[in-house]
């Protein structure tokens, strides 16, 4: 790099830093964050579990509720159950809806699981609540969307909550502070690569 290029880069970085610093100064609310991770691409649940790891790094209290996927064991389930007793972990455990093929039983399981979630959302000792695959409970109308939105809105002020799953209607989006949509560009499965331990489950 020439001296002129160096000087230009330095000036640009200085400007960027002052912009970033100004924005950091403006964001001064100490408040829990509601995060929705949605979209058709891979990376929603794994992102949520990344935040679980972050929270645990600070010795925060974490609760995880998984709303579907009873049949297939996942690495995160094994780890949290066997190695991570400090995380309050609960899984609905009935499998996908096309496995059970029993709407009434699904609704009953979803309702029981939601009661566990509500308890976490009322507990101000819990720093982070993960509601993995919750959006399907709303789209299948297994659970009442208004109740879910209310419970998220009424949770303790400093508690963060992460909801994952495809869909997630506009009403749910309204109550969330951060909404990210993971876009499907390509997925290995479509090229015939089998779902892989440690990557896919
Ligand atoms: P992950 O748990 O890997 O972060 P996810 O939570 O974003 O994935 P889900 O819809 O919950 O996605 O599906 C979980 C499983 O389905 C994973 O094995 C993932 O690799 C796979 N999967 C996710 N998106 C796609 C896709 N677009 N095509 C095929 N398989 C997918
Ligand atoms: Mg998922």
Secondary structure blueprint with pairings:
Blueprint: H1 3-26, E1 34-38, H2 44-57, E2 62-66, H3 75-83, E3 88-91, H4 97-100, H5 103-122, E4 128-132, H6 134-139, H7 145-153, E5 160-164, H8 170-175, E6 178-181
Parallel strand pairs: 1-5, 1-6, 2-3, 2-4, 4-5
Magnesium ion binds next to helix 2.
What name does CATH use for the topology?
Rossmann fold
First-to-last CA distance: 46 Å
Helix content: 40-55%
Assign the structural class, choosing from mainly alpha, mainly beta, alpha/beta, alpha+beta, or little secondary structure.
alpha/beta
Radius of gyration: 20 Å
Number of domains: 1
Overall shape: it is: globular
The ligands bound in this entry are: adenosine-5'-triphosphate, magnesium ion
Total number of β-strand segments? 6
Report strand %.
5-15%
The profile of the biggest β sheet is: 6 strands, parallel
- CATH architecture grouping: 3-Layer(aba) Sandwich
**Element-level helix/strand string:** HEHEHEHHEHHEHE
pLDDT < 50 runs, ≥5 residues: none
Number of helices: 8
**CATH superfamily, called what?**
P-loop containing nucleotide triphosphate hydrolases
């Amino acid at each position: 790099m020439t001296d002129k290029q160096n000087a230009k880069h330095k000036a640009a970085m200085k400007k960027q830093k002052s912009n970033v610093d100004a924005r950091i100064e403006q964001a001064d609310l100490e408040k829990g964050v509601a995060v929705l991770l949605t979209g058709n691409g891979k990376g929603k649940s794994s992102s949520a579990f990344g935040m679980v790891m972050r929270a645990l790094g600070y010795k925060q209290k974490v609760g995880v509720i998984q709303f579907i996927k009873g049949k297939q064991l996942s690495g995160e389930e094994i780890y949290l159950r066997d190695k991570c007793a400090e995380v309050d972990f609960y899984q609905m455990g009935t499998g996908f809806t096309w496995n059970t093929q029993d709407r009434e039983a699904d609704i009953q399981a979803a309702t029981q699981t939601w009661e566990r979630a509500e308890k976490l959302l009322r507990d101000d000792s819990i720093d982070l609540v993960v509601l993995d695959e919750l959006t399907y409970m709303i789209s299948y109308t297994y659970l009442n969307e208004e109740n879910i939105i209310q419970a998220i809105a009424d949770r303790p002020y400093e508690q963060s909550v992460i909801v994952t799953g495809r869909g997630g209607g506009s009403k749910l989006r309204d109550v969330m502070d951060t909404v990210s949509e993971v876009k499907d560009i390509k997925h290995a499965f479509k090229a015939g690569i089998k779902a892989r331990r440690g990557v896919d489950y």
